UniProtKB/TrEMBL annotation:
GO terms for biological process: potassium ion transport. The lineage of its organism: Bacteria, Pseudomonadati, Bacteroidota, Flavobacteriia, Flavobacteriales. The chain crosses the membrane at residues 6-30, 65-90, 96-115. Keywords: Membrane, Transmembrane, Transmembrane helix. InterPro entries: RCK_C, RCK_C_sf. It comes from Nonlabens agnitus. This is Potassium transporter TrkA. GO terms for molecular function: monoatomic cation transmembrane transporter activity. It comes from the Bacteria. Residues 138-227 form the RCK C-terminal domain. Signal peptide: none annotated.
Length: 257
């Protein structure tokens, strides 16, 4: 019975640890779903894809969180397996084994419902976030929520092609803000990273541009070349963005009334 109770407590603690880790990863700027997946993958040792591994390894705080999670996960999994074996090996009677099995089934079922509960999730998230703010130096910020990466908004990186519409033009000439697209930064090979560049900044071939805006607008921007059609597409995008803004203003006025 003691082994069965120990197993339940260890599994509960494991779920809590992965929850804390996922919230901590969200505070470094990851989306909630990505943070949850990476926390569980690191804890169980399942491994991550190459792209997701780069997101972790290139960020010192995320790397530290995942490193500690992997260490705890190895110890936790071994302990769980040991407790599970002892639950059915130590008891000498069938009744004791069934009693241990009942404790495990009931306990894990209750834990599963608790994990699935939105009320429990909100309460835990609020408590853990408060503790992280108070006792750690993590930057407590969910950048997905801050940038509203929903409703078809996204952040993307684009390589500036030598024959692309953006190449050798200033941001003022491109006038992307009128399309609802914002240049968050530009990385130039052999040079520094330029954060939030202003109007006179000129894009060059092979620059890597970090863009924020609507997914369809970003896709259109990627496809433009140095021709007349690129100018027409820019004008269409500006018109669409203006229509969207007017619709939002009308909706806001209607709600106020």
């Amino acid at each position: 019975m003691i082994a069965a109770i120990s197993l339940f407590l260890i599994v509960t603690l494991s779920a809590l640890i992965t929850k804390i880790a996922s919230i901590a990863l969200v505070h470094t700027g990851l989306s909630a779903e990505s943070a949850k997946f990476q926390a569980r993958s690191a804890y169980t040792g399942a491994g991550l894809s190459t792209k997701e591994t780069e997101l972790i390894m290139n960020h010192p705080v995320r790397r530290k969180i995942v490193y500690n999670l992997m260490l705890i996960g190895n110890a936790g999994i071994v302990t769980v397996m040991s407790s599970l074996i002892l639950t059915f090996v130590l008891p000498e009677t069938t009744a004791s084994r069934l009693y241990g099995l009942l404790i495990i089934v009931v306990g894990l079922t209750g834990l599963w419902f608790a994990i699935r509960s939105k009320w429990v999730d909100r309460g835990l998230s609020k408590m853990i976030s408060s503790m992280l703010r108070r006792y750690t130096d993590l930057q407590v910020q969910d950048f997905e929520a801050v940038l509203h990466l929903k409703n078809d908004y996204k952040i993307s990186e684009a390589n500036v092609d030598s024959d692309g519409w953006m190449c050798n033009r200033t941001l003022q000439e491109l006038n992307l803000r009128e399309e609802g697209i914002t240049i968050l930064g530009v990385y130039r090979k052999g040079d520094n990273y330029y954060g939030s560049p202003s109007g006179p900044f000129k894009l060059q071939a092979d620059d890597v541009v970090t863009i924020y805006g609507k997914a369809d607008g970003i896709k259109s921007l990627y496809q433009r070349k140095k021709d007349f059609y690129a100018h027409l597409e820019h004008e269409r995008a500006v018109a669409r963005e203006e229509e969207r803004r007017q619709a939002e203003i009308a909706m806001a006025e209607t709600e106020e009334e």
